[in-house]
Amino acid sequence: MGRGESVEPAGRGGSVISLAGAVSAGVGLAVQSRLNGELGSRVGDGITATLASTSVGLLLLLAIVPLFPAGRRGLGLVRAAVRTGGLRGWHLTGGVCGAVFVASQGISVGSLGVAVFTVAVVGGSAVGGLIVDRFWGGDGTPRPITVARTAGAAACVAAVAIAGNGAWGGSGTLALVILPVFAGVAIATQSALNGRVGAIAGSPWPATLINFSVAAGSLALALVLRAGFGGALPGHLPAEPLLYLAGVIGMGVVAVATTVVRRIGVLVFGLASVAGQLLGAVLLDALTPGPRPSAATFVGVAITFAALVLAAHPRFRRSETVQDARLTASRPR
Questions:
Q1: CA-to-CA distance for 197 and 140, rounded, in angstroms?
Q2: Less packed terminus of the chain by CB within 10 Å, N or C?
Q3: Are 59 and 290 in contact (CB under 8 A)?
Q4: Which residue spans adopt a coiled-coil conformation according to this UniProt entry (predicted)?
Q5: DSSP at 191
Q6: Per-residue confidence of the chain (333 residues) as pLDDT tens digits?
């Protein structure tokens, strides 16, 4: 464990608060997906739309984080950890994973719809969460792959598939699904990386600033490379300020994820986030013009929360505690 890093306590009350925070982050992701999808459709280019909304969040973070002592101190601790080896350079690349996820929103949601996009992301994040937790975890401590955790992940994927019943299209849709599946794996990795940086910084906001800086740089580089190979750049961006709130929402989502993933782990955070995304999608469908939520969607939401209980409830994690101790004892000192 790196110098200055601390493992969050895992009391039941704190875990409930962390789960509630993760669900809230999922609701934010549902709204972010809708906004990025709309912006991508208006611009005609998902990467440009994503860079625009991410830049809004980055500018706000650059203006706010250095104003507070905790922000300045956290950035200094991260720099010191990189110098001394407590953090590796690749620990700071969570923003690349986030850029892949947010870009996939702008590219895929307009064609796939939120339901199918979410199914694909959940499949990738469930597998990614199990693997990342097994070898690292949100706080640097491995968490075993248990029957309860695997069943919870599988039930969550099935629940989201049920919620998206009827939204699947033909072969073109299946080809587009590959990107959000990869984005799901990336988002699981991002949570662990940002959790590590946040633990060193002692605050989620320096980690969020680093995440947005790397994400914006990655997206800008992608645009430059595409232009170098003859790709055309969009001529203008929409003037509606509401469309750019995705970047502001993303600030909160990353900060919450950075904080709670150290307490509940990557997989459980992912499942809680998915529950929030489905809940948010239902609310959006109910409150905005368009199709109303179907009965299958409500069934999917219920199963998702049941899957979250299965993976997170202490009753189903007794054997995990023993395996946690074995994994920790087997790690090289």
A1: 11
A2: C
A3: no
A4: none
A5: H
A6: 344 444 444 455 567 898 999 999 999 988 988 888 888 888 888 788 888 999 999 999 999 999 999 999 999 999 999 999 989 889 999 999 878 877 777 677 777 776 677 777 877 888 888 888 877 665 566 677 778 778 877 887 787 777 666 555 554 556 677 888 888 888 888 888 998 999 999 999 999 999 999 999 999 998 888 877 776 666 678 888 888 999 999 999 999 999 998 888 888 888 888 888 888 888 887 787 766 777 777 887 788 788 888 777 655 554 444 444 444 444 444
Listed by start position, the domains of the chain span 12-326
Note whether 201 and 78 are within 8 A (CB): yes
Rg, Å, the chain Cα set: 19
How far apart are alpha carbons 11 and 244 in whole angstroms? 38
Rounded CA separation 180/278 (Å) = 16
Angle between helices 295-312 and 266-287 (to 10 degrees): 160
Instruction: Give the Å distances, CA to CA, from 270 to 28, 217, 286.
Output: 13, 25, 24
Tell me the three state secondary structure of residue 22. helix
Whole-number Cα distances in Å, 54 to 117, 173, 186, 198, 200: 20, 26, 17, 20, 24
CA atoms in the 13 A half-sphere facing the CB of 235: 0
**Start-end of H helices in the chain:** 12-43, 46-64, 69-84, 94-112, 114-135, 147-163, 171-201, 204-228, 245-264, 266-287, 295-312, 318-330
Phi, psi of 237 (to 5 degrees): -115, 150
CA angle in degrees (0–180, nearest 5) for 296-182-139? 95
How many other CB atoms are found less than 10 A from the CB of residue 213? 16
Contact 110, 138 (CB under 8 A): no
Asked whether 279 and 305 are in contact (CB, 8 A), the reply is no
Per-residue b/e over 180-192, b at no fewer than 16 CB within 10 Å?
Answer: bbbbbbbbbbbbb
